[in-house]
Structures are given as C-alpha cells and as structure tokens.
Amino acid sequence: MPVALIVDDEARALSAMTELVEKEGFSAISAGTLAEARGRLAQTRPDVVLVDLMLPDGNGLELFQEMEPAQRPEVILMTGFASVDSAVAALRTGVLDYLTKPVDIRRLKTVLANVSRTLALKEEIGSLRDELRELGRFGRLIGNSTVMQKVYDLVVKVAPTDATVLLVGESGTGKEEVAATIHELGRRRSQPFLPVNCGAVPANLIESELFGHERGSFTGATQLHRGYFERVSRGTLFLDEITEMPLELQVKLLRVLETGTLLRVGGDEAFPVDVRVIAASNRSPEAAVKEGKFREDLLYRLNVFPIVLPPLRDRNGDIDLLAEHFLGQINREEGTSKKFSSAARRRMAAYSWPGNVRELKNMIRRAFILSDDMIEMDALPTGPSTPAPAGASSNPDSMQVGMSLADIERHFILATLEHYGGDKRKAAEVLGISLKTIYNRLNNYSAAV
Ligand SMILES: Nc1ncnc2c1ncn2[C@@H]1O[C@H](COP(=O)(O)OP(=O)(O)OP(=O)(O)O)[C@@H](O)[C@H]1O
Ligand SMILES: [Mg+2]
After folding, report:
1. Can you give the CATH number for the domain in which 57 is found?
2. Residues 336 and 279 grouped into a single domain
3. Which residues, including other chains, have CB under 8 Å from residue 64's CB and lie 6 or more apart?
C-alpha cells in the first residue's frame, strides 16, 4: 500500500484529509509542523507528501526543497486562494500538483489517482532499466550503447512531465520511435499520439490542418473543421520536420505553446487546448535559424528539453543488436532461421549507414529475400568505409557493378540527404527532383520493411 504523509497545522483539516486519503487506498501518517514532518521523513519514505503551504514554523515548500531530487516523494501543496500563484510557480520546480483549501473531494481523488499513476509509471521505468541491462533494449528501442543510454536517461526524466521536447537527429535515427516512447511512458498514454509531418502537408493546407478553421473562413470552408491540435486533445502531437513549417505558422504555433489556447482560422475567440507537443528535426535547428527559415523564439520555446539522437555509426555495438533484432523479426514472421555470416557482420559494422536504423532495417529485409540460410549482406562495401567525402557523390564505395538502378538511386538520395544535414528541400534541389518525390522515396524505403 502506498504511504502518504499529510502535513497540516489545523487538527480538523488533518483528520478529515487523513480519512479521505485512506479511502483512496493510501496508508496515512501525519504531522502538524515542518519540524514534525522532517522527523517523519527521517523514519519513513512516503510515496506522496501533501503539505500545507503555510505552517507555523515555515513554508511547506521548504520541505520539498530540502529533499534530494532523486529520492523525493511526489509532493502536493495545499493552499488557500491567496497563495495560488506561488503554488503554481512551484509546479515548475517539480511539485506534482496543488489543492486549494477547503479541499474539494473530487479534485483530491484526481490528484491522488495521478500519484498512483506516476508511481506505477516509475515502477515500469525501473523494470525497463532492468530489461535494458539484460536484453539491450529499452521498451521498443533496441540498443544499449553509452550514447543511447544517455538518451534513455533523458526519456525517463521527461516522459512523466508535460514538457515540450525537441528531438534532433539524422534521418532514420529513431526520432519518431523515441517520441512514441515518451508518450507511452507518460500520463497521456491512454490518449492519442498523433504524428504530423510539417514538411509533407502542402503549405496552403497546413494552417487549417493544424489549427482548424471556422465555417466560412475562406472560400471552400463550408464546415467547421477541427485541426490536429483539437483532435489530439489530452494526448501528444508529434510535429515532425518542424523546421519545414512556414514562418507565419511558426508564430501561431508559438502562441499556442505559450498560452495553451488555440484560435481556429477565421475564429475570433481563443479557447484552451491541452496538448503535449514533441517536435523533431533531422537538420540542425540552429542552422535553420541562421538561414532565416526557423524562428529563434520558437526554437527557444521548443528547446526546453532537447534530445539529440546519435547516428547509427556512432552507436558502438548497437548495429549488431539491431541487426539480430530485425533478422529475428523476419525469421519469426517467415518461420525460417536464417543467420548472418561473419563477413556480413563485419560489413555491417564497417559501413557508415547514412540512412541509419531505417537503412539497416531495409537492407536486412532485402538481403533476407536474396539469400539462402546464410545472409552475406554483400551489397555492402567490403573495406572499411570512410566518412562521406565532400560533394554529393559521397560514398562511391557502396556503388558497385551489379547494383540495381533503384539501389543506386537510393544510395544517392540518402547520401545527398546526409550531406545536407537532412535538409530535404536542399537535397531535392540538388538532385533536380521535387520535394514530394523525396518524401515518396523515403516513404517507400520504410514501407519496404
Ligand atoms: N532504437 C531502435 N530500435 C528499433 N527500431 C528502431 C530504432 N530506431 C529506429 N528504428 C526503426 O527504424 C525506422 C526509422 O525510425 P524513425 O522513423 O523513428 O526515424 P526518424 O528519425 O523519425 O527518421 P526521419 O527523420 O526520416 O523521419 C523505423 O522503422 C523504426 O521502427
Ligand atoms: Mg520521422
């Protein structure tokens, strides 16, 4: 049974709270002053502390500040209306929630349910860590290289909060996979997770797709339309390719993030929306700011919690784990037991993987089809691969007579993308194809899996 410590100097409030908290399945201990609470905390480690903001010997927040962040129980402040502002400010420092006095029973129930959920999530995260140690995977994410462990640490910290997250990493490094993990480990997990590719929605549609529009707001707007922000209410919106969003919409997005309210196109009244935003970019957002394509204030706002995903070539040991995982998956689907030859393992370890995990997954799928029991991966270069040289013709090593034109095209598209830091618009320009074609090709590469 989880333990709650209730700290209040009013005896009547204290006994009423104790009763309510016990009804919600907690075992309750109590204290009337800060000093007494400190004494309790020295003896037991409660799961949650409900503390009055104003106590005879000080401010309830002091109790929170004194505790080691790593060992701190969840803290809920109780306060009179007069000091709601300071309670709200405390939320930013890690206090779980606050209750106004006299405490509303329904509110208390919700808050305590949140505590239980947070405790359950923490337990789950703990068991994910054990799994990582034993199996080299963190939930749906395969890999236990040191660089990925740092990513998991950040995921664990940010998942239970509502903080906006910015994921940056080359194409195919797993940004969407990480975004989904953050959603699943958070309190919004039972609500929808909606990925939107800001680069793939035509510029003239994206505003009403994201924010919705009122009936009659423009020619053809025959009906009220609810945008992604409204449709994903209480869930998580994954804004992929955020630097591709038109500048004027970036202003609008910033306003939603800052005010928590939304104005539909053609609307005249903003209303509250409850959405967590996770954004991603496969090019450096700082560089996009320098080029004038991305607003600095939006970057600043999104960058509350940045997570950088390492390219596969920097993830020591993970290539092997991922390769085994993908091959195992296909073997199970097909009822086969194909294996990699040792030359195939060497080739995979030496290759530079410009398309990262996605490219690895696709290559294995293709090699699986082409080989008998032993998988050779002989489409990969044999020698140690060198980092991509300057110029769009990078990776000539991987071009060999015998490759299909489709493979050569794929190599060139991925290498060009890599060269331009994932900037699809730039890559399309250089290759002389449309942005849409790039998107279609990339989609095909992942659909092949
Ligand atoms: N750590 C991982 N474990 C297992 N599968 C992974 C991992 N990382 C990526 N993948 C797989 O690799 C593919 C690409 O991942 P994802 O779509 O998340 O990349 P991305 O960074 O969003 O790429 P892009 O910038 O092109 O959108 C997906 O099929 C995904 O399931
Ligand atoms: Mg993606």
Report:
1. 3.40.50.2300
2. no
3. 49, 51, 72, 75, 90, 93, 94, 95
pLDDT digits (tens, 9 = 90+) for 251-270: 999 999 888 899 999 999 99
Tell me if 424 CB under 6 Å of ligand 1. Answer: no
The per-residue pLDDT for 407 is: 78
pLDDT at 400: 65
80 C-beta neighbours (distance < 10 Å), count: 13
Rounded distance from Cα 384 to ligand 1 centre (Å): 25
Which protein residues have a CB closer than 5 Å to ligand 2 (ion)? 176
Task: Give Cβ neighbours of residue 177 (< 8 Å, ≥ 6 apart).
Answer: 140, 141
Amino acid 204: pLDDT: 78
Kindly state the greatest CA–CA separation across the chain.
85
User: Which is the closest atom of ligand 1 to the Cα of 442?
Assistant: 26
- Say if residue 303 is in the same domain as residue 324: no
Distance 176 CA to ligand 1 centre (A): 6
Q: Is the CB of 357 under 6 A from ligand 1?
A: yes
Compute the distance from residue 55 Cα to the ligand 1 centre, in Å: 51
Among 357, 423, 442, name the best residue to mutate to test ligand 1's pocket (greatest count of ligand atoms within 8 A of Cβ): 357
Question: What residue ranges of the chain have pLDDT lower than 50?
Answer: 384-397, 449
Same structural domain, 117 and 176: no
**What pLDDT sits at residue 68?**
84
Q: Which of 193, 358, 416 to mutate to test the pocket of ligand 1 (most atoms within 8 A of CB)?
A: 358
Question: Which structural domain range is residue 156 located in?
Answer: 137-308
Q: Are 73 and 41 in contact (CB under 8 A)?
A: no
pLDDT of residue 391: 36
* Burial (CB count within 10 angstroms: exposed 0-12, middle 13-18, buried 19+), residue 384: exposed
What CATH number does residue 432 fall under?
A: 1.10.8.60
Q: Is the CB of 176 under 6 A from ligand 1?
A: yes
CA of 237 to the centre of ligand 2 (A): 13
6: helix, coil or strand?
A: strand
pLDDT at res. 424: 85
What pLDDT score was predicted for residue 386? 44
**Burial tier of 343 (Cβ tally within 10 Å: 0-12, 13-18, 19+):** middle
Structural domain ending residue among the three candidates 293, 308, 323 = 308
Q: Let me know whether 40 and 170 are in one domain.
A: no
What is the 371 CA–ligand 2 centroid distance (Å)? Answer: 30
Domain match, 221 and 255 both: yes
Write down the pLDDT at residue 338.
97
Count of domains forming the chain: 3
